[in-house]
Model the fold of this input.
Amino acid sequence: VTGPAQAGPAAASPSVGWQRVGCVVVAAGDGRRLGASRPKAFVDLAGRPLVRHAVDRVLASGVVGQVVAVVGAGWLDEARRVLPTGCQVVAGGIDRQASVAAGLRSLSDRTDVVLVHDAARCLAPSGLVGQVVSAVLAGHRAVVPGLAVTDTVKLVDPDGRVVGTVDREPLRAVQTPQGFAHELLARAHADADLAVGSATDDAGLVERLGEPVLVVPGHWLARKITTAADLQLAGYLVSAGEGS
Ligand code: CTP
Ligand code: MG
Done:
């Protein structure tokens, strides 16, 4: 039987070989800081919702055979309407970690490599998706894209007084898609269920297991859309033909 993880580009791509690659796109957040009248993932950007931009770029990488979009419970029908056929849709959870876990449960158990991607990073280029998958296939079991921090970073006390300046040289601002050996991410999430507090990214859960995580070069277009200003800038970028 040909499962969804085998169908499509993954099976055909020579760079992926026999490995099955699945991607969870988390889109179940409210988008409180954006403040739109609908969840952030369903806000329009140049004629298409953010989640559609994200899923299209994942599919365009040509290395992903199964995509699961995780959306708010009230948005399942709308998601099925706006997403390409073949993209599965499931309901998310109370926080990002719970939404990722819901997506992981829907992946084929024959999946070898899992990507986790934020719908909010909807312009992350397909080339970045391919680079993360390649690094996992090269043997790195947890891979995150990251950018050097260019601003000077200060430590402050609760009153805003500077306590010190952080050496920014070893700092990286990490993005998605993050890539993992399926077995490792499943174990990290199973472990996280027992732990107190949730991690803000999936690599954080893998770090708690004491497993190594590799940072590969990120991309400025993989910046997260958080505020109205971020959305406006993304609109300019799309109309200028960036990130398509
Ligand atoms: N996310 C999710 N399920 C949640 C919370 C967040 O799937 N319960 C997803 C969001 O849809 C987003 C990604 O995680 O694609 C990153 O989260 P963030 O940028 O914080 O989005 P929101 O939580 O929607 O925004 P805000 O924090 O401003 O409310
Ligand atoms: Mg949030």
